[in-house]
Amino acid sequence: MTDYSKDYSKDFPILEKEIYGKRLVYLDNAATSQKPDSVIRTLSEFYRSDNSNIHRGVHYLSEISSERYEKARAKVSDFIGADDPGEVTFTAGTTDSINQVACSLKPILEGNEVLISGVEHHSNIVPWQLAGAKLRAIPMDEDCNLLPDSIEITDRTKMIAISHASNVLGSVNPVKEITEIAKEHDVPVLVDAAQSIQHLPIDVRDIGCDFLAFSGHKMYAATGVGVLYTSERFSDIMPSRGGGGMIDRVTLERTTYLKPPLRFEAGTPHIAGAISIGAAIDYMQNIGMDHIRKREHEVYSYAREKLLGTDGVTVYGNTDLMCGSISFNLDEIHHYDTGLILDKLGIAVRTGHHCAQPLMRTLGTEGTVRASFALYNTKEDADRLLEGMEKVRMMYA
Amino acid sequence: MRDAVQDEIIEQFGGLEWLDRYSLLISFGRELEPMDEKFRTEENSIGGCQSKAWVRAYEVDGRLMFNADSEAMITRGIISLLLKVVNNRSPREILDLDLYFLDEIGLKSNLSPARADGLASIIRRIRELAEGEVN
Ligand SMILES: Cc1ncc(COP(=O)(O)O)c(C=O)c1O
Predict the structure, then answer these.
(1) Which ligand 1 atom is at minimum distance from the Cα of A94?
(2) Angle, alpha carbons A39-A3-A318 (nearest 5°)
(3) Which helix (H) or strand (E) holds A101?
(4) pLDDT for A188-228, tens place per residue?
(5) Which of A112, A221, A289, B38 is buried most, with the most CB atoms less than 10 Å from its CB?
């Protein structure tokens, strides 16, 4: 039997911290994850020894930076099972990635329709509205699980944009089933993998999506950098922004663009950030994505079972495959009040609507308490959370 | 300038562990008279709070009375203390008030605009309402 009890928190310097005199229990990983020492070192060493702009200089350092940047791209490509590193663009994050797609496809989307789900983050709602598209949600059952069989695609459906895992409920959406249906109608699919890339092995060929978006900072890398995978099929879409580094030839009359990925990377990118994503992938692959998935599943299910078994707690969402986030409320106690006391006990959770107001409306609440797990969280962390909730309940009793 | 109402609050909280401070805040929150549903309007609501909050003011003989509420109990507790301090004063007095008790009972961090309870916004609204009455 595999040993899932190894303590990975030792790899994360910040987790040694005490908050209000108690060992920090960090359960806000869906907002951002902490960084392993190897990633922190990669970032600082890059600036100490290799820093230079990329793809521009004739000089030594520029060559090294460019090489490291491209190596990070190849690593991402391999990590998500892309056919070619050319399909991987570095962006500023998930939000930026989705905005770029929406902006590039605006001429097609405007006045037409984008299918989303009812559990989407605002980042997978607002960009499509800005592009002038109407949104329609795929029907869900009472546990907020999508019902792919009731997907209705019309002539006006120009995109299906779905989160792989919900940042609120932790439920994993049937993205593969959805891409299969979309293919029959030749509608492109964008998968928002912000809450799955750090928890599950991902293969874009297996999923069959045309676009995949995720953020570095939620997968143990730097903030301000992310990825957009664009399948070869869409390699000639118009770039959403222009500038240096992405052109073939510029005249005042007409400009031609490079092929992807550079086509979509106008201006100086977050070079160190991209390299940190490479380092984070190394870190995760050293442990193994399968191992991470199984280990997290143990801790996640343990926490969930305990919460479900506690009287006076409402736990939201329920499906076979879940990861990352668990949302709940203590009956009669405002989520903010719960979060504030947990904070004082050294337990970091998030409270509120989690940038998913349409879902909150469906759940019939203004907000939830969300505990979200990463590979370093343990059953002991879950126990601390439950003890904390007991204390909250006593205080409000 | 020391102020008797604030000093009394400081004394109540003095020497308490954080847990007991919060318990006390919660009991103050429970005591706060709930705001009538009809006053919980868009106009009276405060933006930028994670828990919804409302503030209104009315005048009695040249003095301002405030009525405020929140969905979260701890925020209600803080509101309850605030109202003890600001109620029944002239608008001028309210504008001149230094709310030092918040700092002294360990709620200063709640005043930062980054805090989700919107205490800073509630105080701003109280001042705006007082400003509107100064003549
Ligand atoms: C499902 C989902 N999509 C998109 C985002 C936005 O990510 P970022 O803020 O890194 O752009 C998040 C972050 O919370 C998320 O959970």
Answers:
(1) 11
(2) 80
(3) helix A94-104
(4) 999 999 999 999 999 999 999 999 999 999 999 999 999 99
(5) A221
A340 at the B interface (CB within 8 A)?
A: yes
Supply the pLDDT for residue A15.
97
Average pLDDT on A34-55 reads 97
Instruction: Determine whether the interchain pair A337/B72 forms a contact, defined as Cβ–Cβ distance below 8 Å.
Output: yes
pLDDT one-digit tens code per residue, A311-347: 999 999 999 999 999 999 999 999 999 999 999 999 9
E strand or H helix at A191, and its extent? Answer: strand A189-192
**Which residues of chain B are modeled with pLDDT < 70?**
48-49, 109-117, 135
pLDDT at B120: 85
Task: Count the alpha carbons within 13 Å of B77 in the hemisphere toward its beta carbon.
Answer: 19
Structure-token pair, residue B74 = 């701890």
pTM of the shown model: 0.94
Q: Which of A16, A14, A30, A61 is nearest to A296 (CA)?
A: A30
Pocket lining: A192 vs ligand 1, CB cutoff 6 Å = yes
A268-290 mean pLDDT: 98
Buried b / exposed e along A136-149 (16+ C-beta atoms within 10 A): ebbebeeebbbebe
Measure CA A80 to chain center.
13
Distance (Å, whole) CA B54 – CA B64 = 16
ipTM metric: 0.87
CATH of the domain at B60: 3.90.1010.10
Q: Is the CB of A208 under 6 A from ligand 1?
A: no
Q: Given CB atoms, is B52 within the 8 Å cutoff of chain A? A: yes
Tally of domains within chain B: 1
Asked if residue A354 has its Cβ within 6 Å of ligand 1, the reply is no
Q: Can you list the domains of chain A with their CATH numbers?
A: 8-31+288-395 (3.90.1150.10), 39-286 (3.40.640.10)
- Given a contact cutoff of 8 angstroms between Cβ atoms, the answer to whether B57 and B108 are in contact is no
Mean pLDDT of the region A284-304:
97
